[in-house]
């Protein structure tokens, strides 16, 4: 909660958790020229909370803002109490009440708009899976099948509410659901078109013929990252350990992480490359980890991807490549800052800060890399992409917009 002193920029921030004051800090902010008088507040938060629960089925917030939240402010010369929580569909919601009369001024919730899978042929795109609010978190392809997974009822701050997995054998002209209820973190095909999934705490191989899965790795703690290479290698990281398989999950080697990790990747030759929470690049040589120094003037690394004998890194928005053997950095020219890197089998992609997709390719037979701009849906937020059979497939997640929240009909 924030309190301000009338006609000054002095503010007081108070944090309350489990009935106790946990934060008390003096700050500065906008000058408040219109104080709220206590006599104008006829309805306080407990009464209005009960009203919000009754009128809009408001529930406690989860994950991002736990419990119910309240604000008191002046809007159009009226004292307004805002009750914040989630609605019956787990949407982030705000109910505005007149603190003097107790009447509802407005009720809003954040609803998803957009999302789906798009297929591009040249400049022509076709929406393959499109339902407003369908969050497609990832796509993966084998020689013939292609799968998409995500959440059919996402909210802005909660994922995995209604997980789905869809499969197509004709490049998206028709789809069918796989009966999988778990939230999928990653999925991939090996060279034999065998399908694998990573869930919160397990890795599966999945029989498309029998439509059933078999756990090949079960863990007590949650999986943080997953990466695979073309030579049957899989690497999994948790908060404390690294699990590595060189035979499609037939057996696993468990080691302790060298440092708290942001990401862990495996090159096609089996080398492990890690990005630590301290933004240090590490490469595993034998049984020891060695640091890879980055160009000091380019800032901290954000993403890394091993490609062939190189390592491609996003250094504060600019792209660089390094020959792993020679440890020599070369800048990759780009039209705009890069925010994400995506690896799909032998292809590497980059997403710019404005949402434009690029493919990173070698320039002829040289060791240099270049960016090739691809197309994208006009207003979609790209979550994943791949190239298959001369098609560009783009998976997208919805944006979340404030819309009217309807009250309970009496």
TrEMBL record:
Output the superkingdom of the source species: Bacteria
InterPro entries for this protein = Sialidase_sf
Q: What is this protein called?
A: Exo-alpha-sialidase
